[in-house]
Amino acid sequence: MELSFFLKMVDPTLAEMGKNLNEAMKMLEDNQRLEEENEKKYARKDIPGPLQGSGQDMVSILQLVQNLMHGEEEEETSQSYRLQNVGEQGHMALLGHSLAAYISVLDRERLRKLTTRILSDTTLWLCRLFRYENGSAYYHEDDREGLLKICRLVIHTRYEDYTIEGFNVLYTKQPVIYISSAARTGLGQALCNQLGLPLSCVCRVPCNTMFGSQHQMDVALLDRLIKEDVESGKLPLLLVANAGTPGAGHTDKLGRLKELCEQYKMWLHVEGVNLATLALGYVSSSVLAATKCDSMTLTLGSWLGLPAVPTVTLYRHEDPSLSLAAGLTSSQPVEKLRALPLWLSLQYLGHDGIVERIKHASQLVRIIHSVEDELSSPVVVFKFFQEYSNRGIKQCTCCALSCGRARRIPNCALSLQLGEQLAQLVPASGVDVVELEDEGTCVRFSPLMTSAVLGTEIQDIDQLVDCLKMKIPVLTSTLQLREEFEQEVRRTVGLLYIEDLGWPGLGVVRYNYHSDGKNDDKQEKELEKINTELLKKLNELESDLTFSLGPEFGGQKNCVYIGMVTEDLDVSELVETIAATGREIEENSRLLENMTEVVRKGIQEAQLQLQKANEERLLEEGLLRQIPVVGSVLNWFSPFQASAKGRTFNLTAGSLESTESTYVSKAQGTGTTPPPTPTSSLAKQRLPGQKAFKRSLRSSDGFSETSSISHCDDLEKMDQRPPALCPGPEQGPLEMEKAEEQKEVAQAQTDTEDIHSDKSPPDCTKVEDQASQR
């Protein structure tokens, strides 16, 4: 405004120039604004939808997170999944992550003091709780990261020139890391990949084979391996021992291993679930020896049920510069905030709360594990096995791995089925299935890893034991009836027994399709069609058995898989029903194929006869009658009387027949009677409420004697009826018509006798009423 007033006071020429300048500037500004809007519109096309605009509100974002956590997962799978029990102590751990983000914005000096206090307090508390004096702590997210940092620390310690010369030092004297064969899968390979070492630097130490637990490291063999490596110019660097193996939960002989490590100047690192028992008042001597090791890894999150807390590696080392070089310590204050969630949770639980959770898990083990062994492991691993004697299977049951193994053969398929069913029936128990090197598939119960997370209680273990007692007889019956089922199938014509060792059910059977010179592709399709229809028919029966196509991956094609069975199963009836149903489906399929072929041939024959009849009609009518105008005039003067000749196709006989008899009798003939549809004649007479394939056991019969007797009387009365009035299942329609005629004649004779035997005079009123009605 001041600029326009100033222009009015000056020369008019300058005012005009100023006016033009304002218009030009306005035009430039409009063009620039238009270009910016176009640029924004063009750039928004590449921006994802949630980021467009001015942002979203907090409610929408949290709703999206909730949908991602629960909505899609429930749509994809209908199975119940284990949800972690997040209590108040878990809320403290989650609060620690939020506080860590807030504390990180403090000024540097205040942040340094606070993080130092948190780190020192947490380290001191953990060392006192788990009896590890004068130790330092490293907090990490990945449970293998602590061992990786320890390996770097040992390399820096044993190779003084490693910081300067690097891998050249390792080349002259190759380091060796010893790991038990019962350790975590892929642990050695992960260490070599992160350290840049060849796989030859990892030595797997076998477990005991003759004496002691088969999940403990063989100390004598380890000593021999170390001596061989020393003689070959290698440097024994580190030994990874287990205080609770990942599979069976057994503890190595840590005392002897520590002596061996001191002899060869090796570093001893211990990890495992049994380290949690160090916080208890009484600790077994095998686990107590872990307090003398050089480092140990603690997974407090699963032991105490704390979500998103870091894993802790406690270690002893005197040189802080080497610890800093290995990455075990950091000069960044923000890195020290990893201990904040654990710092808050430990204070909230207190010593009593920590001990109570670990003691509760140990008590759950004692409930389910009634046999005390020298290993005192808080992990129970059991399997389904069968004892063999000279007469075959002697006993089928479950036992822990600490039991003897004489004459006991484990069944991996049934153990897998048992573990999956127990996990589904009692999800709060935390049982899972593990694969062990010698025992195969086993069921594992490790409450130290699951009870605090899932909130396992004593009643859950009682329910687990009840389910185990309920499932064992079913598994035993299935295993004992397998041989009988195989023999019945092999004796039955038309059935093929398929041996599938990975199937935990009764067995696998296939209906063999009898091909009549068909090619392989057509035979395969027909086989698939028949067995699919057979599976559908079997599932429609009222029985307790489960019929399926087998597992999704690795199963046989075109087969019927039969699931678990009980001891009252009638195997012969089951096999007979499968064979009869398969034959019925095959006969119906062949009947349909034959009918299709007959209809096709009949249509071709009808076309030929129609063509022949047209030619004959042309010969009879003459050529003149085929001319349009002349033929009409000729038909008017001399009409041509053509006989109606038709054809009918008899589906029963499969032939063409003339329709002359139909026009003569003014009615369509019925022809021959079609054959009855093939049905199964092996249906067993069952009592009311009794399901299919059940053997009639007197001891387990649920029906009263009165109902059984009355049912038998009804059957006897049906058998005593006259044969003419009770057509059997094998009588056809003609026999049934004769029976009906005989029944009508007998009824008429009975009515006549009643009329003649009536001595009273007829009622005249009734006779007159009948006459009037007529």
UniProtKB/TrEMBL annotation:
Location of the PDXDC1-like third domain: 485-590
Domain PDXDC1/PDXD2 second: 418-479
BP terms from Gene Ontology: carboxylic acid metabolic process
Sequence ranges of Basic and acidic residues compositional bias: 711-720, 735-744, 753-774
Cofactors demanded by this protein: pyridoxal 5'-phosphate
Transmembrane parts of this sequence: none
Protein's UniProt keywords contain Coiled coil: yes
Coiled coil: 17-44, 596-623
Compositionally biased spans, kind Polar residues: 699-710
Region listing for Disordered, in residue ranges: 662-774
Keywords: Coiled coil, Decarboxylase, Lyase, Pyridoxal phosphate
A GO term for molecular function: carboxy-lyase activity
Any one Pfam family match given in the protein's UniProt record, by short name: PDXDC1-like_cen
Similarity-based family: Belongs to the group II decarboxylase family.
Annotated protein name in UniProt: Pyridoxal-dependent decarboxylase domain-containing protein 1
